[in-house]
From TrEMBL:
Places the protein is found: Mitochondrion matrix
NCBIfam families attached to this UniProt entry: adk
GO MF term list: AMP kinase activity; ATP binding; GTP binding; nucleoside triphosphate adenylate kinase activity
Organism lineage: Eukaryota, Metazoa, Chordata, Craniata, Vertebrata
Domain Adenylate kinase active site lid: 128-163
Gene3D superfamilies: P-loop containing nucleotide triphosphate hydrolases (3.40.50.300)
Region (LID): 127-164
Quaternary data: Monomer.
Function recorded in the entry: Involved in maintaining the homeostasis of cellular nucleotides by catalyzing the interconversion of nucleoside phosphates. Has GTP:AMP phosphotransferase and ITP:AMP phosphotransferase activities.
Catalysed transformations (reactions): a ribonucleoside 5'-triphosphate + AMP = a ribonucleoside 5'-diphosphate + ADP; GTP + AMP = GDP + ADP
Name of the top EC class for this enzyme: transferase
Binding site for AMP: 38, 43, 64-66, 91-94, 98, 161, 172
GO terms for biological process, alphabetical: ADP biosynthetic process; AMP metabolic process; GTP metabolic process; ITP metabolic process
Protein name as catalogued: GTP:AMP phosphotransferase AK3, mitochondrial
Amino acid sequence: MGASARLLRAVIMGAPGSGKGTVSSRIIKHFELKHLSSGDLLRQNMLRGTEIGVLAKTFIDQGKLIPDDVMTRLALHELKNLTEHSWLLDGFPRTLPQAEALDRAYQIDTVINLNVPFEVIKQRLTARWIHPASGRVYNIEFNPPKTVGIDDLTGEPLIQREDDKPETVIKRLKAYEAQTEPVLEYYRKKGVLETFSGTETNKIWPNVYEKKKQLELQIFCKMQIH
């Protein structure tokens, strides 16, 4: 086998507010993977006005979900640039057809699923307030402003994004669960799903780290055998 035997193909899944961004950044730092976020990829393509970016924007502007084939084209096109690297996919696949399309192109080694209770996520997200002009983010629980509802630096009022209001958060979490449960089941049957449960990212992370080290060792050993 060639150098590709050393490469790791991983996916991370977790509801909005599950700590997926934090865990992803730690994985990238400790294991030297390339991080591919479908959200970032979409924004970049829309900003650059690429063919697929323009297409995706037409659906977003109409308040519609981007079709599976568009998201799949976007992700697989970008992955062609990362053939020499190990990578971590974040935000893709989100539906069963996307997972099946990814499977036809690459063998996924592991799927990291962050299982954080919805009530905990709701508390996290609804505690978030922002200063619109600067983008500064405050959290009422662990990073509160000095004065409630006021930005520390400018004295201007803070706002709560529509996405962070309790009724919107609950709706988003239910939609995420309905959309991704078939994907989790698909990977569970394939034997590559690893679920990490908890309420705090700092307590979940050591378990993810240990599992990831074991997986890299297994891949290295297989490479030596072949």
